[in-house]
Amino acid sequence: MNQERLLQVLLAPQISEKATYVADKYEQVIFRVASDATKPEIKAAVELLFKVQVESVQVMNVKGKVKRFRQTLGRRKGWKKAFVSLKPGQEINFVEGGNA
Description:
Elements: H1 3-9, E1 10-13, H2 17-26, E2 28-33, H3 39-50, E3 54-62, E4 66-69, E5 72-75, E6 79-86, E7 92-93, E8 98-99
Antiparallel strand pairs: 1-2, 2-6, 3-6, 4-5, 7-8
Helix pairs in contact: 1-3
């Protein structure tokens, strides 16, 4: 795969209370990814950037919320979320800026 493309696949880690719970219990890390990204691209991008071994990837499309501005109804953009399962013994630590 093209290395430039892999650097554009991962947009940001999803850090929330639920993401921390999932990371502890299931050894998964949650990322916000490009909406046209595929599972093999996400796997290759995580392995390239964080130097860890990925076991599997689950992908979910998040629909944008409907919001009102005065009388007008609008909708926020939808986005894609990836749940990346790491192999046993692997870990990504975002606080220290990379692999642990």
